[in-house]
């Protein structure tokens, strides 16, 4: 039987079993509050959690099929002129765009509310100069799209709403976004699922949908910084993630999706908190160690540069840390001699050396902490 286009029901959905969800709602909100407490204790979360943002971009893009790793992205940014294959470059460009879109949103939310116009702006950044740039960046689609194993709509697993139904569906979605609900995490779970099911763009819907999670949490005041990383859980549980979304469109099973998403928030709040704490502990340790090792007035500037970019070229380090070149070269040598940084590629001729900060990378990429 041919799948029919999804017809979104008005939000909030009818039939949410609030009583059944109460334990999950309580657990997820407690876990999120603990995570936010950790965020509030970090003196400069945008600096210290910068590698986690890049890792979120890596994992969210991986759900869509990219193969690039965190190390691939950071090595490319350290030495963008190094030869690299076209496919790898396209993967890395998508990941960098994802991070750039999130950063754009963070700046925008200082002065405006989250709305559909901002979502379109983020989509434009996401697809800029990448594989999706020919797929109407920033524009709601005017064609019928579908998800399937081949190019035949007759074989589709899922068909989003018809183009003529998008305006009403997105208007209802935006009204629900800006309205209230009994619990914000349930509201968020509905908004995320409905956005991905509406599939309003020709490309990038899943990535924008995952990006909305920290932005809505921040916009609704549940976290003090828009830094919440959901993609590790969704990537690890990808088959269930897709099945629960499909069950909403196929069976109207909102309760199954809400239960899944609340558990995802709880699990990932704990994992994010452990990583953020480990990064803060490492920073506090290095705040003692790096000045002792370098005996330099530039020790703190050097330390901040290491935490912002845990794989870097010597040239990038000079620029990031804003340290005179001779002093910066001496600091790098001392950090290398004491095993704080490791050489990934020696410099030669006009090519700068590439270094890594292994302990920060291990925390960032660690699946379990």
Overview of the structural elements:
The chain has two domains: 18-275, Orthogonal Bundle (Fic-like fold); 283-365, Winged helix-like DNA-binding domain superfamily/Winged helix DNA-binding domain (Arc Repressor Mutant, subunit A), CATH 1.10.10. Helix content is 62%, strand content 4%. The chain is built from 16 helices and five strands. The strands form two sheets. The chain has a three-stranded antiparallel sheet. A two-stranded antiparallel ribbon has the order 1-2. Helix 1 (18-41) runs parallel beside helix 12, helix 5 runs antiparallel to helix 6 (116-127) and helix 8 packs antiparallel against helix 9. It is globular.
Features:
369 residues, mainly alpha, Fic-like fold, Arc Repressor Mutant, subunit A, 2 domains, 3-stranded antiparallel beta sheet, two-stranded antiparallel ribbon, 5 strands, 62% helix, EC 2.7.7.-, Fido
Short account of what is shown:
Residues 114-263 form the Fido domain. The chain is mainly alpha-helical and 369 residues long.
Question: What's the CATH H-level superfamily name of the largest domain?
Answer: Fido-like domain
Helix/strand class:
mainly alpha
Count, helices: 16
CATH architecture of the largest domain: Orthogonal Bundle
Strand content: under 5%
Structurally, how many domains make up the residues? 2
Indicate the low-confidence ranges by residue numbers: none
CATH class membership of the largest domain? Mainly Alpha
EC number: 2.7.7.-
Domain Fido: 114-263
InterPro entries: Fic/DOC_N, Fido, Fido-like_dom_sf, Fido_containing, SoFic-like
Pfam families: Fic, Fic_N
């Amino acid at each position: 039987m041919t799948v029919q286009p999804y017809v979104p029901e008005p939000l909030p959905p009818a039939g949410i079993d609030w009583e059944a969800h109460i334990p999950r709602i309580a657990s997820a909100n407690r876990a999120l509050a603990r995570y936010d407490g950790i965020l509030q204790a970090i003196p400069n979360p945008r600096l210290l959690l910068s590698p986690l943002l890049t890792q979120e971009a890596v994992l969210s893009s991986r759900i869509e099929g990219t193969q690039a790793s965190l190390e691939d992205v950071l090595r490319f940014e350290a030495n963008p002129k190094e030869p690299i294959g076209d496919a790898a470059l396209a993967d890395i460009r998508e990941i960098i765009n994802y991070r750039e879109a999130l950063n754009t949103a963070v700046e925008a939310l200082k002065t405006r509310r989250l709305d559909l116009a901002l979502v379109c702006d983020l989509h434009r950044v996401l697809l800029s100069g990448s594989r999706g740039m020919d797929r109407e960046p920033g524009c709601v689609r005017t064609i019928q799209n579908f998800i399937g194993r081949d190019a035949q709509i007759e074989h589709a697993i899922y068909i989003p709403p018809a183009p003529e139904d998008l305006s009403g569906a997105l208007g209802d979605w935006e009204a629900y976004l800006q309205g209230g609900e009994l619990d914000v995490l349930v509201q968020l779970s509905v908004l995320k699922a409905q956005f991905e099911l509406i599939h309003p763009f020709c490309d990038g819907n899943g990535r924008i949908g995952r990006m909305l999670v920290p932005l809505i949490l921040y916009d609704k005041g549940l976290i003090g910084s828009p830094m919440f990383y959901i993609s590790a859980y969704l990537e690890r549980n990808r088959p269930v993630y897709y099945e629960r979304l499909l069950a909403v469109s196929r069976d109207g099973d909102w309760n199954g999706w809400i239960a899944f998403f609340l558990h995802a928030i709880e699990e990932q709040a704990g994992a994010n908190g452990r990583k953020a704490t480990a990064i803060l502990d490492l920073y506090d340790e290095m705040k003692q160690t790096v000045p002792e090792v370098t005996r330099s007035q530039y020790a703190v500037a050097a330390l901040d540069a290491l935490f912002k970019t845990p794989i870097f070229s010597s040239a990038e380090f000079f620029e990031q840390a804003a340290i005179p070149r001779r002093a910066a070269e001496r600091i790098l040598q001392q950090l290398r001699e004491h095993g704080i940084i490791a050489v990934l590629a020696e410099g030669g001729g006009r090519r700068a050396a590439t270094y890594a900060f292994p302990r920060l990378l291990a925390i960032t990429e660690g699946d379990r902490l």
